[in-house]
Specification:
single chain; 327 residues; alpha+beta; six-stranded mixed sheet; five-stranded mixed sheet; globular
Length: 327
């Protein structure tokens, strides 16, 4: 039975670091935003109007190893943008611009161009501008033919209560939006489970870029008829289902999910069988077919799904200790 920790990644260590970062930042007199949300909020200074800037940063992780193996570099840039802008919309922020950081040992221009074209593609899907970035060539630091990617995005919102987390209550419905695949988390475990030949065999499903939800979600949040229907949004990334949904609801509430209420992608079923991975480990590592979760008021849940023209009712909010339950 293979675990994420055996693949070299400790979710617990990551959570501990976040706890320490919160302590460091909260001690600063300059801190204006709580740490721990999917993106940070910064109030516009006086004289610049009302509203907030929202910012976040992320990378693609070891999915890049798959891109190297398959020699396919035109989609990981989409992943890079997606991992950022999907976090911004959890605050209700509209992405404005994106900047990237491309680092390598020796610059291979054709490869770098393919990556940047992917980033531009992702920005177009998100409706934001690729404002700039940095290319760093560092001989001896990266293996031949390999590179690393990071990026950050800034968005804007008029009201920090656009997504009214404080209004969450028992009985609210959880609407899950389908993922396009594994997205950009858990690839250290993927590579532990599959041999190189198996990675190539399943390459098309694994390299599928992260879905960008921005335009649909922003249209929903801006809908006058459905104003206030969406109370919380969770992007299902590192830490999977147990770690991400609880971040967006107040204390005293938990998520109760109904098994079988959404389709689990075939690639996950293959991985679980091949690696004899425990179900709990799968849900703690991967999105399991749901890339974004919306907490919506029960009386408007059907209308929200009709507006989006997609979604699965995968559970509801209940009173209880923070966390998730599967029934």
């Amino acid at each position: 039975m293979i675990t994420y920790a055996q693949a070299g990644v400790s979710i617990d260590a990551g959570s501990e670091l976040v706890r320490r970062i919160k302590k460091i930042v909260s001690a600063s007199k300059l801190s204006k935003s709580a740490i721990g949300g999917f993106s940070g909020l910064y109030p516009l200074p006086k004289g610049f109007g009302k509203g907030f800037l929202s910012g976040c940063c992320d990378g693609v992780g070891t999915k890049l190893k798959l891109a190297f193996l398959l020699n396919k570099h035109d989609t990981v840039g989409i992943d890079l943008v997606a991992m950022n802008v999907n976090d911004l919309i959890c605050q209700g922020a509209k992405p404005l611009f994106f900047l990237d950081y491309f680092a390598c040992g020796k610059l291979e221009v054709d490869t770098a161009e393919a990556v940047i074209r992917g980033i531009q593609n992702g920005c177009e899907q998100a409706g934001c501008i690729l404002l700039g970035g940095e290319t760093a060539e560092m001989p001896g630091f990266y293996a031949q033919g390999e590179y690393d990617l990071a990026g950050f995005s800034v968005g804007i919102l008029k009201d920090k209560d656009t997504v009214k987390r404080s209004k969450v209550k028992a009985g609210d419905v959880v609407l899950g939006l389908a993922s396009s695949g594994v997205h950009s988390n858990g690839f250290s475990l993927v590579r532990k489970i599959f041999s190189e030949d198996e990675l190539r065999e399943n390459g098309a499903a694994l390299i599928e870029p992260t879905r960008i939800y921005v335009k649909k979600i922003m249209a929903l949040l801006e809908s006058k008829k459905l104003k206030g229907a969406v109370k919380a949004i969770a992007h299902i990334t590192g830490g999977g289902w147990p770690e991400n949904p609880p971040r967006v609801v107040p204390k005293g509430f938990q998520f109760e999910f109904k098994k079988g209420s959404w389709p689990i992608l075939e690639i996950y079923q293959k991985m679980q069988r091949r690696g004899s991975v425990a179900e709990s480990e799968m849900f703690r590592t991967f999105n399991m077919g749901i890339g974004l979760m919306l907490v919506v008021s029960e009386d408007k849940a059907d209308a929200v799904r009709r507006f989006l023209k997609e979604g699965y009712f995968i559970g509801h909010i209940a009173k209880g200790a923070a966390g998730v339950l599967f029934k």
